Each structure stands twice: as C-alpha cells, then as structure tokens.
Amino acid sequence: MPETKTRWDIFCTVVDNFGDIGVTWRLARQLVTEHSLAVRLWVDDLRAFERLCPQIDIHASQQWQQGVEVRQWMADWQPTEAADVVIAAFACQLPGAYMEAMAEREKPPLWMNLDYLSAEDWVVSCHGLPSVKYKQVQKFFFFPGFNQGTGGLLRERGLLERRQQFQQDPEAQRLFLQGLGVDRAPGAQLISLFAYENTGLASWLDAMAGDATPTHLLVPEGRILGDVERWLGVEGLAAGAVHVRDALTVQVLPFVRQDQYDLLLWSCNFNAVRGEDSFVRAQWAGRPMLWHIYQQDEDIHLDKLEAFLALYVKGLSGPAGEAISGLWRAWNAGEKMTDHWRSTRKHWPELEKHAQAWCLEQALQADLATALVQFYLNWI
After folding, report:
1. Which residues belong to the active site?
2. What CATH number should be reported for the domain whose range is 159-362?
C-alpha cells in the first residue's frame, strides 16, 4: 500500500433501487476497512441508500458512515477537487465540472469504469483495457468476473470463515431467525425469495405447496410481493405476515441490511436472488440458488444468463446440470416451474455439494476490492 492515504471517489447513480448502491456501498466500506483508503461515495438517491444504511441522513449533502464519506450527488454540482482514483460505477456519466477537475490535476487520476458483472467470454479480453479519454485523462475498463483475468467478485476478508462458522452453529441460526420472527418448523426446508415480478412464481409456489417435504418460504419486502399476494388471494402483504397452504408456509420479512441479508442466505437451504449484489452473496452462501437476472432490451440479459450457466454447471452430472439450467431458464422466461422444480429436487444432494465447491473455486481469485487496489498500484 502507498504510505499516504490514497483518495478514491466512487460515483453511483441508483438505477434499480438497491443493486447499484448495494455494490458501491459494499465496495466503499471494504476499501476503507481493509485497504485504509480515503473514500468518497457520491450517490444521487439517498432514499434508496437509506434502506441499506438506516443511519443515513437523506437530507445531508455530506456525512460519514462506517468510515466512508457519503456525498449527495446533486444536479447543481459544486466545485470539488478530483481524487487520485475515480470509479464511475456501471458506466454512469460523471459531472462535467468534475471531469474538468480531473483534467486540471498535475497528475491525472486513475479513471475506471466499474462495469456490470458478466461471465461472457469477451469480458476477459476487455478487462483492464483503456477506454475513452477526456483531455489527458485516460479511462479504463474494469470488469468483475468469474474467470482468471477479470476483477473477481466482492468478498470481504474472512467472509467464508464467518459463513462456515455460522452454518455449523444451529443455535446461532435459530437466534438470528427468531430475531426476524421466524419459527422454523422441524423438517422444513428454508428458502429465501428476493426477485423481480415473475409470472412463473405461481407454478413454483404450487409445486412447493404440493411437495412431500414442507417448505418455509421467506420473502423480504420487495417487488415480488404483488405476485405472492395474487397467489395467496390476499392484499396488503407486509413484514410479519404468515400464510400456510398445504406443505408451504409463506412469511414476509422486513427489508434487511446487507450483513443481515448474508445471515439470511446462510440460514437457508436454497436462495432465489436477483440483480447483481444478492446474486454474488448467494454464491458465497455455498447453497443451491436461483438467479433472476435484470431484464434488458432485446433480451441481451439472456446471453449473460447462458454465459453464467455454461460456467456454473461444469462439474455437475448431465441430469443435474440440465435440471438447474432448466429451472433458471424457466424462471427468467416467466414460464411454469413445476416440472423444473421437481427435477431440481431429485438432484438436491449433488447440487448442494456443487454450490459449496463453486464457492470455494471462486474464492481462489483475488476479491474485487483487492484487484482494484492492485490495478492502481500497477498503474502508478
């Protein structure tokens, strides 16, 4: 590490409620706590940020949260000195005045576009390459990823050790769930559901309700609640609601902070997640999962889905790989889930072992924060 504190600016525009701010908030904290950097996080929507960090003052233009300087990114941009490293998260456009401030520095800053996570083949060949220039300031592509030659995934120091300890401690799990108002029925499989709206949900709930094994489905407040309400035939579902239909218990949870969400994922036997941040956290949970990818124009998100599946099913038997792939494809197409869920259940032990192996394999790579710092050290 450099002897003096390097100053980093991270810019985030909140596009999808919690995904973008979830990634940048996690990254900013890790750069501060593990790499002793001075980090400013510029956010254009503090109301969305408040759900992840309840201590936030949504009216403050400048504040400190967990060692990170949080700045409100407002339309009337005030003159600000550019940092040593500037990260434009997910290709957001920096304020023109700030770009001028970058160009005015005696030594131009390292300017990086932290892109969305993808398993597509082209990511490796583009990672770290120069992008556009603004005057004498060069921007670089920086891609998170699953393969060697990418920036890796966000993973805090000691995360997997903490997860393993928690998963081996039934009492710790019971107390955590109890704190959320969850009383897990003996023998019930625990499943978390965090997803976008999905027409395939009703058939999946039908399948779980008719399963021989009881299921306790935990649904944090979010966009999928409307579909849950329609299936239950109720209105106004809110945190604390519990409904039972045959073998399925559905319980609505409050929206939880990131550290609590990790514990939720670690407590469950299976996790349905969405977007990018929760998708990565589900992988670190080491449990079978279902990903609802963010929908994009012309269905280009389906190419990303297939690229990830091609990597993820390696090491699985043919039938198990087909089962989990079929489940993911049906879910992302909003199709009926019944047969795919039953097929997945047949291969449960193999899928559990595979999820653990995948987690350990991904942990062999440098984490994203460390990779960013190393890129900067190489650059200087």
Report:
1. 20, 276
2. 3.40.50
